[in-house]
Design brief:
This protein is an all-alpha fold and 119 residues long. It has two domains: 37 residues, no CATH class; 58 residues, Orthogonal Bundle (434 Repressor (Amino-terminal Domain)). The protein has seven helices and no strands. Helix 4 packs across helix 5. It is extended, with a radius of gyration of 19 Å.
Length: 119
């Protein structure tokens, strides 16, 4: 069997730390139970969506703390200004990926300059 290799900037210690509190067997069993329940018709489709602890983000507060307009913030995030406006007004919520990006930006403002200068 061929050995798989992956390139990463994380150290082995960081990778191990990411999985420190994860019971992979339990997660797999939970997922399989949800799939079986759905197939038997005793579960709603939305239960198949992975349950995660997503960070709570106040989009308007984050944008203002970065001193950005909605248009500039939208450009950095790769969304439309209307999307940012909808998030800020509560008409819609950021996707899990967007929430994680917003969380990272809130903890490291230097990432804004990286995103502004990407090709």
């Amino acid at each position: 069997m061929e050995e798989l290799t992956f390139k990463t900037n994380l150290t082995e210690s960081e990778i191990n730390n990411n999985f420190k509190n994860v019971d992979i067997f339990s997660e797999l069993m939970t997922g399989l139970d949800e799939v079986l329940s759905y197939e038997k018709g005793s579960s709603q489709q939305d239960t198949l969506i992975r349950k995660r602890n997503l960070p709570e983000i106040d989009v308007a507060m984050e944008r203002k703390s970065l001193n950005l307009t909605q248009k500039a913030f939208a450009s950095i995030l790769g969304v439309s200004p209307r999307t940012v406006e909808a998030w800020e007004s509560g008409r819609s919520n950021p996707s899990p990926t967007a929430r994680n990006l917003l969380y990272l930006l809130s903890h490291d403002h230097s990432l804004i300059s990286v995103l502004q200068h990407r090709s």
